[in-house]
Fold this protein.
Amino acid sequence: MAPWAFISPGVVVRTGHTVLTWGITLVLFLHDTELRQWEEQGELLLPLTFLLLVLGSLLLYLAVSLMDPGYMNVQPQPQEELKEEQMAMVPQATPLRRCRYCLVLPLRARHCHECHRCVRRYDHHCPWMENCVGERNHPLFVAYLALQLVVLLWALYLAWSGLRFFQPWGLWLRSSGLLFATFLLLSLFSSVAGLLLASHLYLVASNTTTWEFISSHRIAYLRQRSSNPFDRGLIRNLAHFFCGWPSGSWETLWAEEEEDSSQAV
């Protein structure tokens, strides 16, 4: 068997991201950008700040990519004992959801077919990180997007500062072709990061997930509801997402919302 058959996709993706990050940074230092000019003039504060931001975004990427997104811990145990224990945790008004792999699922959890695990408050599986985004790493994922966007926009400005358009075009391409390709790549990445950050901030503000937003018509606990049963208002949604306050299970919140709806009718 070939040696590369033992290398997991996650290792390939994370290595590729790391190489691409430092490769783009190196291109900005090697060309006549403001970053290089600051360095040559001995003004090291801004270059060091840029490098620290790049390093911070890379560390956040690895943290989100490698951490447990909120996997459900499924341990073999007698069926009757499992049923009684899990049923006791679910309010009677809550619709039961079952997974062929993980038995009874809590609300907002979903089985990821790429990770082969059920994830609490499942948002999506991110191929760029080769990991799910779920209950435990979603706040860090949003923080990573914000920091990454800052780095990309600054790098985009630095790349543009080093571009000098002149003729003949063949000579220009040899001297600035790599920097121009980097500029185009940074433009693409900045657009994607900006759209992702905006969409996730909207989802966080309304206390919903990407999966729930896209597939609400197919989710049992959402398809018969005219509004989001988990939305507590902007301030409380943000406080719960980033700080875990106020605490409480999604089942309890759903049951309370269902009871309020029944009383209103």
About this structure: The chain has one domain: 9-69+94-257.
